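pasting for the record
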Amino acid sequence: MNEEYDVIVLGTGLTECILSGIMSVKGKKVLHMDRNSYYGAESASITPLEDLYKRFNLPGEPPESMGKGRDWNVDLIPKFLMANGQLVRMLLITQVTRYLEFKVIEGSYVYKKGKIHKVPSTETEALASSLMGLFEKRRFRKFLVFVSNFDENDPRTMEGVDPKTTTMRDIYKKFDLSQDVVDFTGHSLALYRTDEYLDQPCKDAIDRIKLYSESLARYGKSPYLYPLYGLGELPQGFARLSAIYGGTYMLNKPIEEIVVENGKVVGVKSEGEIARCKQLICDPSYVKDRVTKVGQVIRAICILSHTIAGTADNNSCQIIIPQNQVNRKHDIYVCMISSAHNVAAKGKYIAIVSTTVETNDPESEIKPALDLLQPIEQKMVNISEQFGPTDMGNESQIFISRSYDATTHFETTCDDIKDIYRRMTGSDFDFAEMERKQKDTFGDAE
């Protein structure tokens, strides 16, 4: 370990593993360490089920009705992948897809006045949807056509809209969309967690709705994908990529000290040895003095023996509860997956509820979501602090990732990866730079 590295990475969360993969592909000498004995850090999938029970301090062993403990891979952080999103691009370009298998999530739903409705995913579904009345549907269809044709470089598609100054609130007014339609468009299609976007320039919202539509167009049932055996497979896939390019991995390594000289990182001390480096990437838990608390997220893992009522018996789905519907500032999300994804015993379903904490009684905040899941066989609640860096690494060359937020997709995580990359290298992230030039050492087929 007493060697010199270009980059040392601490923690094997998804953000860290993708960055270590990218740096290795770029020819950097990388050492990647984690204090835990498993990959994934905060974004791990826990197996067997006995370990999950221990983690949440549940008394005794899981009951026999839960099946074999090894059949379970339970994500600590619930997220799906947008089929046309940034993470899928990263997976495809680096060919990490060859280590993983994905399934399409069966349906996307939105909560309105106590009931759940399917988010219309095609024109036909929009016209048949119980979310809107007849005239509303026509206006909504016009709005969708406008969004899909919108091109900043072609004024004819803009219909007098200036993407830099026209707000999204103005666009909704232009198409005369009602509050309910605005709610589900902003929160279930553009996937905003709050309503702050309404008074900002419309370009970002239009891009987000396009991403949803393009993701949906790829597979049809919903815009979301999920890897078999759980999200913990993602960091492991990128770790393998790093290893193929010469990256060194060490799990179970207690980190005693991050060695800084004259304000700049020079190495990491573990078990009495010092590995030297020019740059360091880590999650907030390794540098508590260089981060600040930016919020809290509550996540409730619920094990069910049934599908969720109103979701057409789908073995997987997402439900979004827009904040306006339950008098909140942030949306509540439900992600459900099942034995079909090799993450639960046969006949069992895992529904994970998450939201940004707003009060001193976080569990009562998620009650509307828990009510949709009844009866719940076993519930495990975790409230985690969210941190962001106070040190941006310009002087220290320590680059700290942000805690995973309550969103149910990886777009914000990818934004963080691109931001760290920019600060580390001084240049914008370029997907083409991730292009893989080496094959696996153990004879992958052509």
